[in-house]
What does this fold into?
Amino acid sequence: MTKFPFTRNGTEQLFAALYQLDDRLLQQEAAWIQADFQHWLKDHYLLNEDQLNYVNKLSENFIRSTAPLCSVAIRNRLPIILDKPNEKVHVRRGKLVDTKNNIQSQYDEGENLEITGELTFTIRY
It folds into this structure.
């Protein structure tokens, strides 16, 4: 697959391309992001050296909490948004990644499962 810029627009393009895949291939992508989050990111985004180092140093806690959310969003073709400023505005602790998850599910006795919402990652400096 083509790699996309690690920007809001690049992320929109990435998921537009992914969501055109057939269900079987999309489910493989969802399983991959959950199984190997860091490798998935490196395989789908054009990352500079600093970004690669950051991805390589992601904590297991962050990965364990984030990868399943991404997998659910992908499986259900939900928006995943990257809100990343063009300029670095420094905060005390360096780079911060905020995750906003408003994914909701509704299940009925007829075994119909409806999943809606979106997942947003905001990067602050």
Remarks:
- The radius of gyration is 15 Å.
- The chain is about 45% helix and 20% strand.
